Amino acid sequence: MHRSIRFTALAAVLLLLGAPVYAAEIHGDYVEARGADVYTGPCFANGEVGLIGNQATIAWKIRSGAWNGVDLSGLTVVGVTRANATLGDPFANPYPARAIMIVDEKANEDQKCALVEFAQSMGGRLLENVIRVQSAPISMAVGEGEAHGSVTLKAGNIVTIQTRSLTGKDHTCGNSFVYYPPLTELSHAMAAVSVTDEFSGTGLGTEWRHFGKRNAFVGTFSR
Hints:
By secondary structure, the chain is α+β, with helices and mostly antiparallel strands. It has one domain. 17% of the residues lie in helices and 41% in strands. The termini are far apart. Residues 1-23 have low confidence and may be disordered.
């Protein structure tokens, strides 16, 4: 009886050791900022939908991992897009959208191509139509602990985003909630306030500056 139990336990251990281990190939931090509030109530959202919210900046900082066999650890890629309608509006089609990609200047040529391919895979149709790819120095600092929700992104002199966590003072509407979901699949996401959200690049036919708007998400991704 005891020998049978020991044999069964040993067989179970061997099966576990022989089983394939599936781990994320690439993971890191994420930030996005949009033209319309993402944390809001229907009253405010209805005042913005169809008028603004058709542009967004999305960025991935890769802590570790590879894409199509190319190591991207420590690199960052930013996508800036302009769509045809408010992103997230279920009654309008925002596509096709136009986008520019900003890749980390520290990347070599293979890594730059892989960064664009990775971002397009994550961003889907939002980054499908890339009209320009450019390199720039990119820094992305992510707060931890009490600074959770604080992200500072700088891509050359093209993109600046600084976020902070939501506070009680940001509940301007008694029915505020996460009205729009993030623009890409994330393993963790939280709505945030963009202290600064600026784009001053070329190629999209527009620039913008937003301050103190509840239009941001910060989070992590794993793929």
